[in-house]
Structures are given as structure tokens and as C-alpha cells.
Write a structure and sequence with these properties.
By secondary structure, the chain is of the alpha+beta class. Helix content is about 30%, strand content about 25%. The protein is built from 16 helices and 27 strands. A hairpin with a 5-residue loop joins strand 8 (about 125-130) and strand 9 (about 135-150).
């Protein structure tokens, strides 16, 4: 018995009561609203130990009841609780014998998962909306639940419905994350329905997590003495990096990125905590560098990769969502072959290896990577992929998902075919699999040549889409001279678009870094500081406290749409730390190459890396700029200042 729980014991006879809930196992899940994705029957296997000795186990002598106060529970829909039934255990006739089953104990597998805990909390503020409704504003969009204390009489009720936003009229809404036609239960309710007992009523949900900033209150209770506390709930991850500068909106952008990671890293990296709660491979792959830097999330990714391995198709396709959150369909299986999404099974382990240097993450996932790439090879013809359906750029302004999937996306497919082959060749070499390494290297080089021949004119892209210039530079698909030419044309597109983005999920993380690498720092920073959509600071100016799924998640008229807690576009924070402050760490190698911007006035990043705490900062005083770096013990850092000066710095504090 844990000593912390000994206060629960009393002299003489003690009773153990266990409440079972549906959890991820059989709750409603995903945009389809499927129930019982993993099973239908609830069961209990329990052993109680005192001082290391077993004193009881669950067996046929136990009894069960459906007469408890928790009337209904669901991870997505919420809970129904009747406080009048809290004394049910003392009543006669509510218990019945349990049904026992003889299962093979080999079915039991230990979960290598990070504890999911209550973390920060936010006190709610009661407000009245124009339509007369009572709303609680917690000031922060988060994933979790509300703990409350109210005073009432037997049978009086209070209902809390949770949502992310107010609508264009200032009234409560949940419509931005609904798909009522597709959802089998008519939508995502995110509701707590509580029936009072006489006097003080205190409640905290046990079996639900919801995405919200606001909660609508429906009750006749007097709320003058009521308290409402929102608890953020996510996998236990320490914050390991921060960035601050002289622009408050950019600082808020960093805050929003962290909170979208917190709101979505609940056991696995989900896309949003409301509509889908789906651990999409594409989102995880494009965000992994930022995610590993901002929070100690290595073990969250590692556990999720095991889910990817488990869900891999026999022909090598990787399920787009791992673990599954629907019962699937023909389209589910077909789109499991989408490049950029399935490639996360290579991208994520390699990012983890580069950061931590632990070869085991490559060993664990090597067969999955090989099988995925074999599937890509089966799609290829003449070294390029020019058939099939892929998601493409995704959430690119001016397109919708159907348009994206209909335009072929074969440039995207061939680009990832080349990039993943090159990465897999490097992984094979690290693992000492030289024959594999040589094969993947050859396939990748041939795919690069095919990309250049089919999708460029002598190595230079011809397009009005920013993303199509970013990818060949990002993945090194053309030579350095042509990378520079593509970067020049990318810069021209951004200027022509009045310093607005028109990139989607896959290329947005790389655009500012690429512009800076080829000498267009001014363009990169004007993009960063863009206050109208599509741009990062538009959401900040609209009061966002998390990253939105789309650039205009709340439009100019104030109407919300889509998820307002979606971490993907928050990958820009990785560039703020790794570009603006220049901190790059790979294994024991530290490189710091800051990019100063007078409009920001000053900037500082602190990264508690796997090799120690690294700090990099710069500050303008008039036209003079000063730099300060902190290098951790047992390391050496190569520092490249904006004027080209190079320094090799030993551990300690350094100023220039």
C-alpha cells in the first residue's frame, strides 16, 4: 500500500470500491463518432498489496452495481452525475454477483506510457453574453476538465457545455468543431450534467477530457458562492525551451505554441482535443523538431511510434491515425498510403535520434521504415510517383481538402520519396546495414533526378505556390545554384503576396529558415510579424491563446471555424529558437547561428537540451548589437555571428 493512501484505512473492516469508466477504450471517438473502436466489455483485474503482500484479488466473491452516482461517462461527450446516489453503497438490493472470465494472461501488456496528470489550473470568471447566457471564461484554451463547487437542493441541476470560442455576436458556440452530419451521435457535446444533493456539491470529472476556454452554464442555482477551476490535463512533460523578444505578440505566439502542444500531447500527439483527438502522422512529423525542443516529449513520441508499428498495413502503408479512432473505411485504407503522412515513421525516429543520440529508437522502428519505403517503391514508376491519391500540402490557403487531393500532388509524393530514401539510407548506415544504405541512397538519388526532370525547368520551379519552391530547397532535390534561384523566386512570391503566407502544413515550418539561409532575412521577419491573415500574428491579434488549424480560424467578422487548438503551425517556434537565436543541437554537437532583427529589439532563447542548458541572446542598443551565449559543461559550441565571425566556445558565459 502506498504510504500516501494509508489515511484511507480505518481500524477493522475496510471496503474497496472501484469505479470503471469507458476511457479511450469504448468512448465515442473521432469525427465519425464511432463507439467501441477497441472493444465493448468492461472488466477489472485487481490485486491489493500491503507491505508487499497480496491481501486480496478480484474474483467471483466481488459484487458489482450500476446504481452509482456516475450515470454516464464518455471521453468526448462528457459525464452525467447524480450526487443524490453517492450513498448507494449502503443501500440494499443494488449489488449483484460479478461475471468472471478465464482470459489468457499473455493478453496483458505493460504500457510504456508517460503519466497523464492534472497540470496548470485556471480560475473561471462568470460573464453574461448578449443573448443572456451565463458563460465561464477561463482565459486559456486548454484540454482538461472543470472542477466546481456549488450549493443547491436535492434534484437541482447544473449543466456545463464546453467550447473554444464565442461567436461573431459574442455568444457561446461549439459549432466551429462540429461535423453533425458525419458524427454518429449528432456532434461533439463536451457536456457535464450534474444533479445536486442538498447543500454543498463538489465535483471533478474522472473519465472525460474536453477542449475549451469557455463553458456555458445552464442552471437555476445561485452561483454567487460557486467556484469553477479548469484543470489542464496532459502527459507529464517538462517545458525544456523558451523564447522571448521585444515583441509581445511574438511572445504570445510562443505561448500559444506551447499550449497547443500541452492540449494535444495526451498520451499520443493528437491534432485537436475536440472534434477528432486523432494522432495524425503528418502533424507529428512536421512538428517533431519543435515538439522535442519545447517539451520533454521523447517518450510520448516513442509510445506513439509503437502505435504506428501496430497499425501498419501488410503492404507497408502506415495508418494516418495511430492508434485508430474510427472503425475505418475503404478511404481510410487508401489514404494510409499518403506521402508526408506515412513518411513520419522515418522522419520522427530520425529527429529523435539526432536530438538524443539513442540508436534504439532507430532499431525499434527500422522494420516499419523499411516496409513503408517498400510501399513507396511499389508506387514509383521510372523513379517518380505519379499515381495514387495523397493529402498534399493540406490547409493551404485558397484550397480545400478535396481540391488538394484532386490535383495529384505528385511533386509532393516524389519529393518525399527522395527525401525519405535519403534519410533511410542514413539510418541504415548508422545501424551498420550497408547493403540497405546503398540501395536507399541509389533510389533517393534517382528520385531526385526524376523530380528535377519532371517538376522543374532545368532545376527551377515554375509555380505561383510558395510551397512548391520550399520543398526542393528543404529536401536538397536540386543543386545549390538552383536552390538559390528557387529561393529568389520564393522571395518574389512572398513580396507579391504582400508578405503573407500561402503555405499549408508541410512547408510552413521551413519557409522562414529558407528565406534567411539565402539572404532574405527582411522578408522572413516581415512574414513573422504579419498581422493579417494568412500570417502568424493574425490569430494573436484576435486573442488566440493556442494555435489554430487554419490561418483564419476566427475571421475578420469574428466567426470561428475549424479547430482552435491545433499545434501544426506552431512549428514556427522551432525557427524562433533555432533560427532567430540560432540554437542547433545534434547529439553532442552544438551550433549557434543567430539572426538578429532590429524590429524585435532583443531576443533570448533558453534550451534545456539533452547535453545541458544552452542560452543564446542578442540585444540592440541603437545600432550596436551585443550577443550573449551560455554553453553547458562538457561541450564545445561553434558560434557564427551575423557578420560571419566564427568562434569556438568552451563551457561558460560569453559576450560579444
Amino acid at each position: 500500500m502506498n504510504l500516501e493512501n494509508t489515511f484511507l484505512l480505518r481500524e477493522g473492516e475496510n471496503e474497496l470500491v472501484i469505479v470503471l469508466g469507458d476511457g479511450w477504450y469504448r468512448s465515442t471517438s473521432g469525427v465519425d463518432g464511432d463507439r467501441g473502436v477497441f472493444g465493448q466489455e468492461l472488466g477489472l483485474l485487481c490485486q491489493l498489496e500491503v507491505d508487499g503482500e497480496s491481501v486480496l484479488v478480484s474474483d467471483e466473491t466481488w459484487e458489482a452495481s450500476q446504481a452509482g452516482p456516475l450515470q454516464q461517462n464518455d471521453m468526448q461527450q462528457g459525464e452525467v452525475y447524480d450526487a443524490r446516489k453517492e450513498t448507494f453503497a449502503t443501500e440494499n438490493g443494488v449489488w449483484h454477483p460479478v461475471k468472471t472470465e478465464d482470459f489468457d494472461k499473455n493478453l496483458l501488456k505493460g504500457m510504456n506510457t508517460v503519466p497523464i496528470k492534472e497540470m496548470e489550473n485556471f480560475e473561471g470568471k462568470l460573464i453574461q453574453t448578449p443573448n443572456g447566457e451565463t458563460i465561464i471564461d477561463f482565459g486559456q484554451n486548454l484540454a482538461g476538465y472543470v472542477e466546481f463547487t456549488v450549493f443547491g437542493k436535492d434534484g437541482e441541476t447544473i449543466v456545463l457545455t464546453h467550447g473554444e470560442s464565442l461567436d461573431e455576436n459574442g455568444n457561446f458556440t461549439t459549432e466551429n468543431f462540429q461535423d453533425r452530419k458525419r458524427h454518429k451521435e449528432g456532434g461533439t457535446y463536451q457536456m457535464i450534467s450534474y444533479i445536486c444533493k442538498d447543500g454543498e456539491n463538489h465535483y471533478k470529472p474522472r473519465f472525460t477530457i474536453m477542449g475549451f476556454r469557455y463553458a456555458k452554464v445552464e442552471t437555476i442555482l445561485d452561483l454567487s458562492d460557486a467556484t469553477f477551476i479548469a484543470h489542464a490535463v496532459y502527459s507529464e512533460m517538462e517545458e525544456t525551451a523558451d523564447f522571448t523578444c521585444g515583441n509581445a505578440d511574438v511572445n504570445q505566439l510562443v505561448w500559444n505554441s506551447k499550449w497547443s502542444q500541452k492540449g494535444n500531447f495526451c498520451d499520443v500527439p493528437t491534432d485537436c482535443p475536440t472534434r477528432e483527438r486523432a494522432a495524425w502522422t503528418g502533424d507529428a512529423g512536421l512538428y517533431v523538431d519543435t515538439g522535442l525542443m519545447l517539451m520533454d516529449s521523447y517518450n510520448v513520441y516513442r509510445k506513439w511510434l509503437a502505435q504506428c508499428r501496430y497499425g501498419q498495413y501488410p503492404e507497408g502503408k502506415v495508418a494516418n491515425i495511430a492508434p485508430p479512432n474510427s472503425k475505418g473505411s475503404f478511404m481510410t485504407a487508401m489514404l494510409a498510403g499518403s506521402v508526408g503522412w506515412g513518411d513520419a515513421c522515418i522522419i520522427v525516429p530520425m529527429a529523435m535520434y539526432r536530438k538524443y543520440g539513442d540508436v534504439r529508437i532507430l532499431e525499434e522502428n527500422y522494420e516499419m521504415m523499411k516496409n513503408w519505403y517498400a510501399f513507396l517503391e511499389s508506387r514509383a514508376e521510372n523513379n517518380a510517383i505519379q499515381s495514387g491519391i495523397d493529402y498534399g500540402e493540406w490547409c493551404e490557403p485558397g484550397t480545400n481538402p478535396m481540391m488538394s487531393m484532386q490535383n495529384g500532388n505528385f511533386d509532393v509524393a516524389t519529393a518525399y520519396f527522395a527525401h525519405s530514401g535519403e534519410t533511410l539510407s542514413e539510418i541504415a548506415a548508422i545501424l551498420g546495414k550497408e547493403e540497405d544504405a546503398a540501395h536507399y541512397r541509389e533510389v533517393s538519388e534517382n528520385a531526385k533526378k526524376a523530380f528535377e526532370e519532371i517538376f522543374t525547368k532545368d532545376g527551377v520551379v515554375e509555380s505561383e505556390r510558395q510551397c512548391q519552391y520550399i520543398r526542393p530547397i528543404q529536401f536538397g532535390l536540386v543543386n545549390e545554384e538552383n536552390c538559390a534561384k528557387n529561393a529568389e523566386k520564393l522571395n518574389e512570391l512572398v513580396l507579391a503576396n504582400d508578405y503573407h503566407l500561402n503555405t499549408g502544413f508541410l512547408t510552413t515550418p521551413a519557409i522562414c529558415g529558407i528565406l534567411c539561409e539565402y539572404g532574405y532575412e527582411d522578408t522572413a521577419f516581415k512574414l513573422l510579424l504579419q498581422e493579417s491573415a494568412p500570417g502568424w500574428l493574425y490569430a494573436v491579434k484576435k486573442g488566440a491563446t493556442t494555435i489554430w488549424e487554419t490561418w483564419d480560424g476566427i475571421n475578420e467578422e469574428g466567426k470561428p471555424s475549424e479547430s482552435l487548438n491545433h499545434y501544426s503551425y506552431g512549428a514556427i517556434t522551432g525557427w524562433l529558437i533555432g533560427g532567430v537565436c540560432g540554437i542547433q543541437q545534434e547529439g553532442r554537437k552544438i551550433t549557434i547561428k543567430p539572426i538578429a532583427c532590429k524590429e524585435l529589439s532583443h531576443a533570448k532563447a533558453v534550451y534545456d537540451s539533452p547535453v545541458g542548458t544552452i542560452e543564446s541572446g542578442w540585444k540592440y542598443e541603437g545600432n550596436k548589437i551585443t550577443f550573449e551565449f551560455v554553453i553547458p559543461v562538457n561541450t564545445v559550441a561553434e558560434v557564427v555571428l551575423p557578420n560571419g565571425e566564427r568562434h569556438e566556445l568552451a563551457p561558460g558565459v560569453h559576450q560579444f
